[in-house]
Design goal:
mainly alpha; 2 helices; 0% strand; elongated; Cell_div_ZapA-like_sf; Cell division protein ZapA; Cell_div_ZapA-like
């Protein structure tokens, strides 16, 4: 939004910080274009809430993936501990190449 904020970041984080700032700036501009009657503070709060929601959704998706992964690992461990419970599938005849 045309403002600069001096920040102290590690040199290895500088590029990421510019990327993050560009994302925030882009969202602020889009909100202000869609709602020019709203103040910059309101735009900042709405953008912050939008980013917080996206973070929440990403964390929830990651949690669900982690849960699914852990369940699969537990199933595999159970199969390794009790290989006799594995049912062999009947062999399928090889398909002719097309």
């Amino acid at each position: 939004m045309g403002r600069s904020y001096p920040l102290r970041v590690r040199p290895e984080d500088e590029a990421l910080m510019y990327q993050l700032a560009a994302t925030v700036d882009e969202k602020m501009r889009a909100f202000r274009e869609a709602h020019p009657e709203q103040s910059e503070l309101t735009a900042a709060v709405i953008v912050a809430l939008s980013l917080a929601e996206a973070l929440y959704e990403a964390r929830e998706a990651l949690r669900e993936l982690d849960e699914t992964f852990c369940e699969a690992v537990q199933e595999l461990l159970a199969l390794l501990e009790h290989p006799e419970s594995v049912v062999a599938l009947p062999e399928q005849p090889a398909r002719d190449a097309i």
